[in-house]
Amino acid sequence: MLNRILIDPQAFAAQAETINGTVSLQHLDKRIWSPDIADLSSELHYTLRGGTDRWQRPFLDLAVSGSLKLHCQRCMQPSDFPLDEQVRIVLFANEEKLDEAMLADEELEGMLLCPELDALSLVEDQILMALPISPKHDDCGNRKLDAVNQDKPNPFSVLAGLKKG
Ligand SMILES: [Zn+2]
């Protein structure tokens, strides 16, 4: 069953509210269930904090952390992927203000105000952005696989080339 946490973003920011919790991937929307994920029971911790910045704009600060298990694209065994993401989402009353602010600041994460927002959909967006395109172990711990790996030149053939030169 999906967990949903509905907030009124404007009130949440104005009252500087905070919510936090732990959610398992299997209780999030299926759009984040990448085939790379080896274990859907992995849990992530999130904190959502509202506030108002120095330009009097309401914002939501989101932090998502934990560890996922992803299939290594080299050896297909699970690989630990630590996740520690923080983002500030600034809320705007209309599209013109949002566009103007995005043009002025390329780094800005902006969003239009809406009467109701699912906090966990923000968590899902954050996970989607953090997932690597091609997860791999730093070292698969399997020499046989390294030998057939064509990505890197074989050190012995490099040495042989040096000797010839
Ligand atoms: Zn591997």
UniProtKB/TrEMBL annotation:
GO term, biological process aspect, one: ribosome biogenesis
Protein's UniProt keywords contain Ribosomal protein: no
List UniProt keywords, sorted A-Z.
Ribosome biogenesis
Against PANTHER family, the record matches this protein to:
LARGE RIBOSOMAL RNA SUBUNIT ACCUMULATION PROTEIN YCED (PTHR38099)
The job of this chain, per UniProt, is described as: Plays a role in synthesis, processing and/or stability of 23S rRNA.
Family indicated by similarity: Belongs to the DUF177 domain family.
List the protein's name: Large ribosomal RNA subunit accumulation protein YceD
Q: Which organism is it from?
A: Alysiella filiformis DSM 16848
